[in-house]
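Sample intake sheet
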Amino acid sequence: MSSSVIVFLVLSMLLSTGACVNFTDVFKSSWAPDHIAVVGDQVTLTLDNTSGCGFESKIKYLFGKASAQIKLVEGDSAGTVIAFYMSSEGANHDELDFEFLGNVSGEPYLVHTNVYVNGTGDREQRHSLWFDPTADFHTYSFFWNHRTIIFRSFSVDEIPIRVFTNKEEKGVPYPKNQGMGIYGSLWNADDWATQGGRVKTNWSHSPFVTTFRSFEIDACDLSGEDIAAAGAKCGKMAQFLWDKPAMKGVEKSKKHQFKMVQSKYLVYDYCKDTARFTQMPKECLY
């Protein structure tokens, strides 16, 4: 077997697999622990009229891949939001978001993604899905290196739904200096989540329940006492497999799938919202 084939196979394995982690070893409750239940490898989050809930990783990561399988709230979930995201801390934080916006029964879920850099977001995209995310578990993942951020949603094969490319040479900020924790939550956001807030949460249908499982993390962790040294280690270009030159973007075999998702399932793109922006964000111009 040639060396190029071996490299291709290793890179493919990186994109499709990671280090499966035990929830209680890696995560902790961030709020309302009484609304979180851990049974085996499944973590159930519950929202009722008293509280939602959330969890967070015990350490932070700088570059790599993180994924989880999630089964969304069934039935009338209008007004609710399930979030799976990565974030640093403070007013000038970096953040990568998956937010699943609840729906009225029979209407499709929308997947809302956003990228924050130094505390500034407003980089939203929304997609509908080509499968029922409430009927079974589906995997959602972040892939993040010096060159690009790839949001992936897949049921059988990985399908990228969004790519945010490093364009620092054009003056566009990119998240690369702040370690981010991994978070999950279920909460009430009926002031904006469903049809712009026109449809409110129907509490007679509560409790609302979502389940996470099969967390995989293959990333550079910032654990240990010397955070500065850990950050320097994680920030070295090409030191880790996910930062090799071959990992600079969507692999060729997935590009047609990405184009299909963008053409058929993208329902909102901030880069096309001329009514919202009198001057388009820099990254939208290149």
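Comment: Helices lie at 3-16, 23-26, 227-235, 252-264. Confidence is low (pLDDT under 50) at residues 1-17.
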